[in-house]
Specification:
heterodimer; A: alpha+beta; Nonspecific Lipid-transfer Protein, Chain A; 5-stranded mixed β-sheet; 5 strands; 49% helix; B: alpha/beta; Rossmann fold; 3 domains; 6-stranded parallel β-sheet; 23 helices; 40% helix; binds thiamine diphosphate; binds magnesium ion
Chain lengths: 118, 557
C-alpha cells in the first residue's frame, strides 16, 4: 500500500469514529493535538488535527505540529505502521528508520487514539 | 548539691550526645526559648530561617543529602501550622524528618492560652508517630522514641510536642536516664525460595530494566548495586532520591533519556526490577509496563502489590536484598538491548536535543539548562523547582553524586517552593560543591525570603530563575483546556528577582541573551555570595509534563 493512501485511510477511520464511536468520542472530546506523519524528504505528509471532539486533516509537510513522526522512507513507514504495534515503532526508532520531532507524549496519545478508534 | 538541668537543655544534650545532631532548622519563639538556649549550650548549629515551612523543607532535604534524620524546631501555633506543608511533604516522601514543636503550657490547657490549639490531632494523619511529653525527666526517652520511629523500617516524619512548662522546668540531672542509641543489626529478609524465583526471572530476562527509587538512596547501596548491575548487565534508571547513587553517565544508565526514555522504553521491557520505588502517580501506578514480569524490592511489605500485582516481592532493605541476590544471578550482558533502548529514546528526543544544542532567542529553557550544566558539570548538586521548570531541570541536569539532581516539586505533594530550601540544605551538607537551583519564577516567590537566611549564614547557592513571566504549567494547560483568551490567574509579569536578592545582600544579574548565560553564571559563582540569575526565557514553550498534567484532568468530568 502507498503511504499517502494509508495516511488517508487512517484519517477516514478517525473521522468516522469521531462521529459514531462513543468511546473514541469521549477520548478526544477535550483534546487539542496536531500530529504530523511524514517522510524525511517531506514528499509524503499528512497532518491530523484534533480539536474539541473534531478530527480534520491537511496534506503537505509545512504545518505547525505538536509531534511529528518522521520516517526515513515511505516503504518502511507503511510496513511498520501496518503492524499497529508500539513495539514496531520503538524498534524502527532504535534502527534509525524513524525519529520523533516535537513532544513524544503527543505521539503516545495519538497511538492510544488510534487504538480507541479501531 | 545535685546538678540541675532544664528540659530544653536536656533535649539539646540528648540530641547532640546521643543522636549526634549537629544542625537544626528553626525560627525562634517564646515557647521554645529554653531549647534554643540549650542548642547554643551544647554546640548544635541553629539555622534560623524566615518561614517555618522552609525550616521543615530544609530539614527534610538535610536527611536526604546526609542520609540521617533532619531536625526542625518550630514554635507553638503559627510556627507549627507554617511547618505543616513541609511535614506533609516529608510524609508523602517517607523521609525521616524529626519535628520538635512548642505548644501552649500544660498549666493553661483549655483556658484560651496564647497559641493554644490541638496540634497533635492536626499532625497525626501526616506523621509516622507523634506525641506530647509531659515530664522533663522523660524528654530523652521521648526523643529516642522519636528518632527510632523516624528511621526504622520505612522512614517517615515524627512530631514531638514539648510544652514550655517542661522545657523551662529544672530537673535533677542524676535522675535522668539517657537512653543509649543502639543500631540494631536485625533486618527483614525475603525467604530463600523467593530470592531464587527472582533470580530465575532475572536470569531468563531478554529485555530487563532496573528501576531504583528513594529506597536505593536511603539504603545508600551504590557499591552492591554497581556489582549487581555489572554482573547481570541490566540497564537501569535511578529516580527520586535514588538518583545519582550511580552516576547519570554510567554506561548502563538510561537516565539521560529521562522521562521520554522511560515512557517509550518501559512498555517494551519483559522484566522490571523495581527497588525502593513506589508505583504511584509519578510512575503512572505501574501501568507503563503491563506485560512485564515484575520483581519488587521494598522495605514496606504493603507496597509490594500496590496498584500492580507482581511476580515476586522481596521485602527488605534494597542493598541487603541485592547482596542476597548476587550469588544467585548469572553473569550476563544486555548490551544489544541497552543500545536499542538508548537509540530509541535518542530518536524520540530529537527536538529536545536540538534545543539544548542551539542558541535561541528568546532563550529556550532546555538550552538554559544545558548552559548551566556545561558551566558546573557533574561535580555539582542541582535542584529544580516549578511546573515546566521541574521537567527541564530533571531531564537536562546530570550529576555524579547521590541525590545530585532533585526535583522535590515533582514528588507526590507536587509542592512548589521546595527548591530554595533544598538548595540551602544541599550547600550546608556539601559546602565545597556548587549548588544550583533552577526555579520557576512562580515557585521562586514561595520561599524567596530564604535568600536572607542564605546571606546571614553565608550559604552561597546559585538560583537561576527560568523566568517565563507566568505560572507556566498552569497557563499552558489552561491554553489547551479553556483556550488562550480565557487564561486566568496564570500571568505574573516581568519582575526583577535578581534585584530583590541584591537588596538582601546577595548577587544578582538579569540575563536576556543566550551568550550572556555562561558569563553571568561564572560571575555569580565568583561572587561567593548567594546569587540569583534571572533569565528571561521563551514564554510560549511548554513541556511534556504539562501535557500529561492536562491529560490527567481531561479524563474527569
Ligand atoms: C504550593 C503550590 N501552589 C500551587 C501549585 C499549583 N501549580 C502547579 S504548577 C504551577 C505553576 C508553576 O509556575 P512556575 O514556578 O513559574 O514554573 P513554570 O511552570 O512556569 O516553569 C502551579 C501554580 C502547586 N503545585 N504548589
Ligand atoms: Mg514560570
Amino acid at each position: 500500500m502507498r503511504m499517502s493512501i494509508l495516511l488517508f485511510l487512517i484519517y477516514r477511520m478517525l473521522w468516522i469514529s469521531s462521529k459514531v464511536n462513543p468511546r473514541f468520542k469521549r477520548f478526544i472530546r477535550k483534546a487539542r493535538v496536531r500530529l504530523m506523519i511524514k517522510t524525511a524528504d517531506g514528499r509524503h505528509a499528512r497532518l491530523f488535527v484534533f480539536e474539541n471532539g473534531r478530527v480534520s486533516t491537511a496534506t503537505g509537510p509545512d504545518h505547525r505540529f505538536d509531534a511529528a513522526l518522521v520516517w526515513q522512507d515511505p516503504g518502511t513507514a507503511v510496513s511498520v505502521m501496518l503492524k499497529r504495534s508500539q513495539e514496531a515503532i520503538f524498534y524502527a526508532a532504535a534502527e534509525g528508520k524513524l525519529k520523533l520531532e516535537g513532544m513524544s507524549v503527543y505521539a503516545l496519545w495519538f497511538d492510544e487514539a488510534v487504538k480507541q478508534a479501531l | 548539691m545535685a546538678k540541675k538541668i532544664t528540659g530544653g537543655h536536656l533535649a539539646a544534650k540528648y540530641m547532640k550526645e546521643m543522636e549526634k545532631v549537629d544542625t537544626v532548622f528553626t525560627i525562634s519563639g517564646g515557647h521554645i526559648e529554653n531549647l534554643l538556649d540549650g542548642m547554643a549550650q551544647y554546640g548544635i548549629r541553629a539555622v534560623d530561617v524566615r518561614h517555618e515551612q522552609a525550616a521543615a523543607m530544609m530539614a527534610h532535604a538535610w536527611s536526604v543529602y546526609r542520609n540521617e534524620p533532619g531536625v526542625c524546631l518550630v514554635t507553638a501555633g503559627p510556627g507549627f501550622t507554617n511547618a505543616l506543608t513541609g511535614i506533609v511533604n516529608a510524609h508523602l516522601e517517607n523521609v525521616p524528618l524529626v519535628v520538635l514543636s512548642g505548644r501552649h503550657p500544660i498549666r493553661d490547657d483549655l483556658k484560651g492560652a496564647l497559641q493554644e490549639m490541638n496540634q497533635i490531632d492536626m499532625v497525626k494523619p501526616v506523621t509516622k508517630w507523634c506525641a506530647t511529653c509531659y515530664d522533663p525527666a522523660r524528654i530523652p526517652e521521648y526523643l529516642s522514641i522519636a528518632f527510632r520511629q523516624a528511621t526504622m523500617g520505612r522512614p517517615g516524619p515524627v512530631f514531638l510536642e514539648l510544652p514550655p512548662d517542661i522545657l523551662f522546668a529544672e530537673t535533677d540531672e542524676s535522675l535522668v536516664a539517657m537512653p543509649s542509641r543502639r543500631r540494631h543489626k536485625t533486618y527483614v529478609s525475603p525467604a530463600q525460595d523467593e530470592l531464587e524465583e527472582a533470580a530465575r526471572i532475572i536470569n531468563g530476562a531478554q529485555k530487563p530494566m532496573f528501576l531504583g527509587g528513594s529506597g536505593i538512596g536511603m539504603s545508600d547501596c551504590g557499591k552492591v548495586l554497581e556489582q549487581f548491575l555489572r554482573k547481570t548487565g541490566i540497564p537501569f534508571a535511578l529516580i527520586n532520591y535514588g538518583r545519582g547513587v550511580l552516576p547519570d553517565n554510567h554506561p548502563q544508565s538510561v537516565n539521560p533519556g529521562g522521562f521520554t526514555g522511560l515512557t517509550a522504553g518501559l512498555p517494551m521491557c519483559d522484566v522490571i526490577i523495581a527497588a525502593g520505588v513506589r508505583f504511584n502517580w509519578v510512575l503512572q501506578s505501574g501501568s507503563l509496563f503491563p506485560d512485564a514480569r515484575v520483581i519488587r524490592i521494598d522495605i514496606e511489605p504493603t507496597e509490594i502489590d500496590r496498584n500492580r500485582s507482581v511476580d515476586v516481592g522481596l521485602v527488605g532493605d534494597a542493598g541487603r536484598v541485592l547482596e542476597q541476590l548476587m550469588p544467585l544471578v548469572e553473569q550476563r550482558s544486555h548490551e544489544k538491548w541497552l543500545e536499542t533502548f538508548k537509540n530509541a529514546y535518542t530518536a524520540f528526543m530529537t527536538t529536545e536535543l536540538e534545543k539544548r544544542n542551539t542558541a535561541s532567542d528568546p532563550i529556550h529553557p532546555s538550552r538554559l539548562v544545558e548552559q548551566i550544566q556545561r558551566t558546573f558539570g557533574e561535580d555539582a548538586y542541582y535542584v529544580a523547582d516549578g511546573g515546566d521548570t521541574t521537567y527541564y531541570g530533571m531531564s537536562g541536569f546530570a550529576s555524579r553524586h547521590r541525590a545530585g539532581v532533585l526535583a522535590p516539586a515533582g514528588g507526590l505533594l507536587g509542592c512548589l517552593g521546595t527548591g530554595i530550601p533544598f538548595a540551602i540544605a544541599a550547600k550546608l551538607a556539601h559546602p565545597n560543591k556548587p549548588v544550583i537551583v533552577l526555579n520557576g519564577d512562580g515557585s521562586f516567590g514561595f520561599n524567596a525570603m530564604e535568600f536572607d537566611t542564605a546571606v546571614r549564614h553565608n550559604i552561597p547557592i546559585i538560583c537561576v530563575v527560568n523566568n517565563d513571566c507566568a505560572w507556566g504549567m498552569i497557563k499552558h494547560s489552561q491554553e489547551i483546556s479553556l483556550g488562550p483568551d480565557r487564561c486566568t490567574c496564570a500571568d505574573l509579569g516581568l519582575r526583577h528577582y535578581e534585584k530583590m536578592v541584591e537588596g538582601l545582600g546577595g548577587y544578582g544579574e538579569l540575563v536576556t541573551k543566550d551568550e550572556e548565560i555562561v558569563p553571568a553564571l561564572k560571575r555569580a559563582a565568583g561572587s561567593g555570595k548567594p546569587a540569583c540569575i534571572n533569565v528571561l526565557t521563551d514564554p510560549t514553550v511548554t513541556s511534556p509534563a504539562t501535557v500529561l498534567f492536562y491529560q490527567s484532568f481531561a479524563g474527569l468530568g
